[in-house]
Amino acid sequence: MTQPLPPHVEVAGLTKRFGSFTALDDVSIRFAPGCFHALLGENGAGKSTLVKCLMGYHQPDGGSVAVDGREIGIANPRTAHALGLGMVYQHFTLVPSMTVAENLYVGRDLLPQVIDWRSARAEIDAFMTRMPFRVPVDARAEELSAGEKQKVEILKQLFHGRRFLILDEPTSVLTPQEAEDMLGLLAGMAKTKALSVLLITHKMREVLAFADEVTVLRRGRQVTGGAVADFNAASLAESMVGATAFEATTKRDGARKGGEEVLEVVDLTADGDRGNRALAGVSLTVRAGEILGIAGVSGNGQRELVDVLCGQRHATGGVVAVDGEPYHARRGEMRDHRVGILPEEPMRNGCVRTMTVAENLGLHTFDRPPIARGGFWIDHHVLREKAKALIARFNIRTQGPDAPVTSLSGGNVQRLVLARELDRAPRLMIAANPCFGLDVAAVAAIHDELVAARNRGAAILLLSEDLDELLALSDRIAVMFGGRLVYETGIETADVGALGRHMAGDGAEAA
Amino acid sequence: MESSLTELGWLTVPLAVLSGAIRVGTPFLFVSLGECLTERSGRINISLEGTLVMGAMTGYGTAYLTGSPWLGVLAAACAGALLGGMHSLLCSRPGVDHIAAGIALMLFATGIAFFFGKPLIQPRAPQLPDLPLGFWSDLNVVQANLRINPLFVIGVLVAPVMWWAFNNTRWGLYLRTVGDSAEAARALGLGVNGTRAMATMIGGFFAGIGGAFLSLSYPGIWNEGLSSGQGLMAVVLVIFARWHPVRCLWAALLFGGASALAPALQSVGISSGYHLITAAPYLLTLILMIVTSSPERSLRGAPAELALNRTD
Known about the structure:
The complex is a heterodimer.
Chain A: E1 9-18, E2 21-31, E3 36-41, H1 47-55, E4 62-67, E5 70-72, H2 77-82, E6 85-88, H3 100-106, H4 117-130, H5 146-159, E7 164-168, H6 176-191, E8 196-201, H7 204-210, E9 213-218, E10 221-227, H8 233-241, E11 261-271, E12 277-287, E13 291-295, H9 302-310, E14 317-322, E15 325-326, H10 331-336, E16 339-342, H11 346-349, H12 357-361, E17 372-373, E18 377-378, H13 380-393, H14 410-422, E19 428-432, H15 440-455, E20 459-463, H16 467-473, E21 476-481, E22 484-490, H17 496-503
Parallel strand pairs in A: 3-8, 3-9, 6-7, 7-8, 13-20, 13-21, 16-19, 19-20
Antiparallel strand pairs in A: 1-2, 1-4, 4-5, 9-10, 11-12, 11-14, 14-15, 17-18, 21-22
Chain B: H1 2-8, H2 12-40, H3 48-66, H4 69-91, H5 98-117, E1 131-132, H6 140-145, E2 147-148, H7 150-168, H8 170-180, H9 182-187, H10 192-216, H11 230-240, H12 245-267, H13 274-278, H14 280-292
Antiparallel strand pairs in B: 1-2
Helix pairs in contact in B: 2-7, 2-10, 2-11, 2-12, 3-4, 3-5, 3-10, 3-11, 4-5, 4-10, 7-8, 7-12, 8-10, 11-12, 11-14
C-alpha cells in the first residue's frame, strides 16, 4: 500500500478560557505521524477542550495548531476533516436507523446530490477488503453490538480519509476483550504508519499496554508527558489526581454467609423500549450484608432490570419479592421494606428538576410526620432543617437547602440522592452505575458509603459497566447477557477473562 | 342518484367509497406527506391545519384573480412554505416548544385566512379540471365516480419519489440523520436547525397544495368550514404510516374511504346512523392513537429525535 503518511500535528501554547475559567492553559504537544498518543486526565482536566480546539468546535484564545508544519486556524469540523483529522466520540454518532453502508457514506464532505448506490457500494466493499476487521455492511446500526458500532465509527473516519484519529474514551462501552481487540488493531495500524492515534482515556491499563506517548492534564495544565516507557501506573495516577490520591477507605468486613434473603427475583421478564424482550427470565437473590454485582455490556437488559425494580417499567412475567413479600415498587412498599435506589442519571431518574435541594432531599419524607403536620401540612422549617443535617453529613456542596437542585454538579446530585436513600437506613439498596462520570474523589466517597451500608447489613444490588468497580466492591458477581444472568461467581474466584467472555456472550458452551 | 342504483345496484357503495377515498384522501395525502417530511427531520409541525385553510384561501383567491387554477395551487403551496418558514423561525429559538408554536401558528393562519377570505365567499373561481379516468365505461355512475383530480395523481407520484429521495439523495440522507440523531448530525458538521427549517418549509409547501385542493376541486367553493380537522388528523396518519411516504398514501386513502362511507351508504338509501358513520375517520384516529401508543416503548420507525416534549 502506498498511502501517504498521516498528518504531522503540533499544538503550541494552546490556551482556552470560558469566562474567568481557564479550561486549557498553555498546552504544547507534538504528534508525529504514526504515533499512538494517550491523553490522560480526570473529568474536567481539559482533555475534551483540547481536542475540541483541534477539531474546530472551539476556537483557542491563545497558542497555535500546526498541521504538516503549517500553522492553521481550524474554524469548524469540516476544516479539520479536510486536514485529515477525525474524531470518534465517546457516545456513538451512528444514525441508528441507517445501515452501515449508509452511515459510512453519509459522512462524506462532498456527498453527491443523487447517490449512485451501486458504485458507492463497490467503493465501500473495496475499502472493506483493505481493512483489518469486518463488519456487516447491510446491517442497521441499531442491530450492531457496541464493539461493532465502535469499529464502524473508526471505519467511517478511515473511509473518509481521516488519518489522524482522536478517540474519546472509546472503550467505555466495550467488553475487556473487545477493547483489547480494538486498541490492538489501532496500535498495529499506527505502527505501519497507516494512521496516528490520540486516545483520550482515564484507564491506566490501556495507556500502559498500547500507547507509546502520553500527556497528563490536570486542571487545564500539562502536568507531565513523554514516552510511556518512562512511566508506571502509580506515577501516572499520581500526576493525574495530584499529591493526594483518593481511595475508598472503607473495607468490606468478613464475608457474611447465610444472611437472610432480602431481594428475590424469579424468572423476571420485561419488554424494552422497542417492544423487544429485554429481560428474558432473570432470577437472582441478594442477601442481607452482601453486595451482588451485575456486570455486562450496556444494553443487555440492565437498564430494564433496574426500571422494573424501581417501578419505572412493567414486568411482563415473573416475581419480585422483598423480605418474602411480593414487591411492586410502590411508594408504600419501598418505605415499609426500606428500599433505597441510586439510579443512573440521578438528575433525570431521582430528582425533580424544578425543586430545591431541600425538597429533593425530602421526596421520601415530606408527606410523613414530622415534616407533614397532621399528615398533610408541609412544615418547611422542618424540611429545611432535615435537609441541612443531610447536607452536612454527606458533604453535599451546595449554596444551601433552598438552592435549585439544577445548580448542583453531577457528583453532588449523586451525593444528594445517596443521602436521601441512605437516610431511610435501607435494607435493600439498588445502585445502577452510581459513579458514572464522577471524579475520583466523588467515586471514593460513594464507594465508601455503599460498603458501609453493606457492613451495616444492607443487601445491595450493584449494576455497573465498570468491571473494576464491581471487582472492588462486590461479594458475588453475576454477568448479564441478552436479558439473562449467564454466569455467577464469588469474588474469590472472579477472573476478568472469564467475566469478559461471558459479557461477550461466549460463555454458553463453557458453562 | 336513482339511475345509478338501477345501473350498478349495491356495487355503487364500494365505487363511491373508492371515489370518496380519492376525493377526501387527497388533502390527507398532501398534508401527511408534508408532515412526514417534517417529522423525518425530527420536528413536529402541528400547525398544518392552519396551513391547509390558508392554502385553500390563497389558492382560491389567486385562481379567482388570475383566472388560472394552477397559479392558485402554486400560490397556495408558497403560502404553505411561508407558514412553514415561520414555524421553523419560531422553533429555532432556544426553549420554544414545537407544539405550542404549532398551535399558535395554526390559529394565526386560520384567522388570517378567514379575514382575507371574507370577500371570496361569493365569487366563483375557476376549478381544476378533472381527469376522466372512467372513460372506458358506458355507465354514467362509473364515469362520475372516476373523475379524478390531477392533484391526486401528483400526490400519488410524490409519495414514491419522496421515499426514493429519503434513501438515495444527499438531502434525504442528511434529513434522516438530523431526524434520527442530532448528535450524529453535529458530528458530521450538519446544521440541524437549517435542515429542519428546510424540511418544515417543504412540508408546508405540500400542505398548502392540499389546501388548494379543498377549494379548487369539485365543488370549487371557498368557505370557512372547508377543512374539518384533516390537518390535525394527518399527524396521527403519519404515525400510522410509520413515517413512510408510500404508506402515507395508503393511510390517506383509508381515512378518505372512512370519510366517504356515510355519503356512499346514503346514496343507496341507508341513512340511519348517518352522523355516527360520519364520525368514522375521527373514531379511526382515536383507535389508531390508542393501539399505536404505549408507555413502555417507542414506535418502530419513529425518528429518534422526535419527541412531543422536546424543546430544543
